[in-house]
C-alpha cells in the first residue's frame, strides 16, 4: 500500500515550486519525516532521488529534525549511487557539518562516527565521477572539517591541485576559493 508521501513523490516533477510544495507538506506533518528519510536511503525505490530533493528543502527549514536520525543518515551516505540523490544529500552534509561547528543552541551534534562517515562520503564524492555540484559541496564540507582534523586540508589540497585542470569552470572556482583559504 502506497503512503500519501509515496503518491506525491510518484507525481513529482523536478520543478522547484513542486518540490517546495511537498517539502512544505512534510514541514507541516512532521510524522512524514521518518518515511521521507527512509525513502532517501532506499536506492531501489524509484522515488529515492525525489525524496532527497524534498529532504534538502526540509533541511533548510528544520535541520534539527535530523538530529535523532544522524546515525542512520550518516552511516547510509555510502549507499547512494544516483547522481540526483547525491547532490541534495551532499548539500545536507555540508549544512550538518557547518551547524556542528557553529555551536549555538540549535546546533547539530555529530558523533565522531558521524563525522567520519561525512568525511568518507565527501572524499568519495570528490574523487569519484560525480557531477560538479556534489563535488563543490564536498569541497566546502571538507574545508570546514579540515579546520578540525589536521590531515584533511593536505589531502584536499593534493586532490584539488591534481584534478584542477580536468574540471569545469564551476569546479575550478570552488577549488580556487578553498585552496586560497588553505594556503
Salient structural properties:
183 residues, 69% helix
Task: Describe, in plain words, how this protein is organized in 3D.
The protein starts with a helix and ends with a helix. By secondary structure, the protein is an all-alpha fold. It has helices at 4-11, 16-28, 33-40, 48-62, 70-75, 83-102, 112-127, 132-146, 152-163, 169-182. The chain is 69% helix and 0% strand. It is built from ten helices and no strands.
Care to give the gist of this entry?
The protein has helices at residues 4-11, 16-28, 33-40, 48-62, 70-75, 83-102, 112-127, 132-146, 152-163, 169-182. The protein is mostly helical and 183 residues long.
* Rg, Cα atoms, Å: 17 Å
Number of helices: 10
**Global mean pLDDT:** 91
Helicity, as a percent range? 55-70%
Question: Which spans have pLDDT < 50 for at least 5 consecutive residues?
Answer: none
DSSP strand content: under 5%
Q: How many beta strands in the DSSP annotation? A: 0
Q: How are helices and strands ordered from N to C?
A: HHHHHHHHHH
Largest sheet geometry: none
Q: Strand pairing plus helix content: what structural class?
A: mainly alpha
Task: Set out the fold topology.
Layout: H1 4-11, H2 16-28, H3 33-40, H4 48-62, H5 70-75, H6 83-102, H7 112-127, H8 132-146, H9 152-163, H10 169-182
Helix pairs in contact: 2-4, 3-4, 4-6, 6-7, 6-8, 7-8, 8-10
